[in-house]
Amino acid sequence: MHTKHTGSWSELLWGRNGLRSLALAGGVAVHAVNVYIVTTILPSIVDDIGGLQYYAWNTTLFVVASILGSALSPKSMEQFGLRRAFLLAIAVFVGGTIACAMAPAMLWLLAARTVQGLGGGLLLGLSYSAVRLVFDERLWSRAMVLVSSMWGVATLAGPAIGGIFAQTGHWRLAFWAVVPIAAILALLVHTQLVQNGRAAGKRTQAPLGSISLLALSVLVVSVASLVHSWAWNAAGIAAGLSIAVLIAKIDGRARVRLFPTGSYSAQTALGSLYACICLLSIGVTTEIYIPYFLQSIHGKSPLVAGYWTALMSAGWTLGSFVSSSRSTATANRLMVAGPLASAASLAMLAWMLPMADLSSQGGANWLMAPLLGVGVGVGLCWPNMLTRVFKSAPKGQENIASAAITTLQLYAMAMGASLAGMVTNAAGFTDPGGMQGAQQAALALFAVFACAPGLAAFMTRGARDAV
User: Is 389 buried (19+), middle (13-18) or exposed (0-12) by CB count in 10 A?
Assistant: First the structure.
């Protein structure tokens, strides 16, 4: 009788269910692997086609488009049915990927990355949403674990694919390598997922107005980062914050909310949790610059730089395993210790990464400890924070609270990338550029961004009360 209520891994991964699992997990895997491929090959791209001042824009535009794509996924599923919506998402993603591979200049690449992000966001949203449609309820929990675990797979596959092609001087082939994988995914989707037609009855509504304003706030900061003037930089940040305040006011009166009631006050448990999730995510976005710093300052190969960068994600996973299923008292202590460990690790990187002579006699290997530490610090509090979000959500708004985690995390990544671009450009990343510019940018970036998890440690009171 027990197996009637709780599906086994063998039931999920065998036969027809196994092929369906592969299709849904593949949707996340294609998106996630691409993220790490581009992070690894980006130094080689700017070395070839230029556009160093737009370095962070590659992540910003990709993630902003992913937010929009993820928000549009329920609507696309209603409009086209599950199978056709998936195939459309794959087509958009592949179109953007091919355009990236053919990019002759940085502005072309940025436009292609935006298209790629839109398709990737659709794939993410559809992959998670389809679990409830494709599998019996007893398999939902294991299916969600399987789909989510693809981010871990991506930390192994992405740097390998990107690093190998970048090292041989063929970064464009890293994009082309994704196309046949996406084609196999399309075949699986076409043969294994049911085309359930257009949904009938009540239509899903997404707060697209608020999401569009989120995207605008990020883009305002990104544009301001291109101007080498502290006044313009400050104006860009102020404008971005003003739009965020406007979002809070609009969302508070909206019929279809982006975030649950109480999310915009740091005094509430939910507001405290969301603030910490946002700040911790911002701290981790520094990883987009690590391959460049490791290659330009410490002479590491693209492959090694890619895997060292992935240590942040590996640390996040490690910390999550350590902190899951802990007692309330231990979890509360970890919610303070985790952000402080992440902040201390970023501060160590601010000190160590600019030191070019650290590479002599293998001293650069010591960088692996703080790189791992940034992720471990986040992982030590992450699972408990997510669990408490569900507990803190107002009655009837649990689904909104859950969906808001993904939106908030993607927004934090996009805004973090924009702010990283602003800090590095202001610190001399492009002027004077070269070794000196990289050293100055590394010091400024990690010193400034250490403040984000540091601030999170002091905003956990509400989160610790949420039990």
Answer: buried
